[in-house]
């Protein structure tokens, strides 16, 4: 981090990406406060460099939301994730991987709170993006479809899920 900050400057987008990646590693290690320190620094740089209506800024918000979700602060997580989704929607990027990742995170959050009806809505959005961009044999599509079917199962609407799984195999 120190070498990159010196060579690139403290407001360079690649430096912000490095800070965010360090934050993700800390999150994965369970060091949530340290993760959030790095992710918030990254978010600030991206806000200064790109403004608030940019995909990289939205990605920073999603990353922060994912960290709050990992530490089970669902209220804070939802604020950041919905903010990220709103930016990406406003930019017309609802068919991009960033959008799919964001709505998948929102689906995971709702499912972890046992709100499977809302989880289904967001998993369907992620699945739609994957179908449009990744063909039917993509691992991402399989992940989104699995999450969708799992939420259906938990809502005891398996009969719909069976139809969806056959549809994906045929198409």
Description:
With 171 residues, the protein is an all-alpha fold. It has nine helices and no strands. The longest helix is centred in the first third of the chain and has 19 residues. The radius of gyration is 17 Å and the shape is globular. The C terminus is likely disordered.
Summarize it.
It is built from nine helices and no strands.
Cα end-to-end separation: 46 Å
Computed CA radius of gyration, to the nearest angstrom: 17 Å
Largest sheet, strands/sense/barrel: none
| Residue runs with pLDDT of under 50 for 5 or more positions | 164-171
Query: SSE order in H/E notation?
Result: HHHHHHHHH
Strand content: under 5%
Task: Note the overall shape.
Answer: globular
Number of strands: 0
Q: Quickly count the helices.
A: 9
Averaged pLDDT, please? Answer: 83
State the main characteristics.
globular, 171 residues, single chain
Topology readout:
Layout: H1 2-8, H2 13-28, H3 32-50, H4 55-70, H5 74-90, H6 97-112, H7 116-134, H8 139-154, H9 158-170
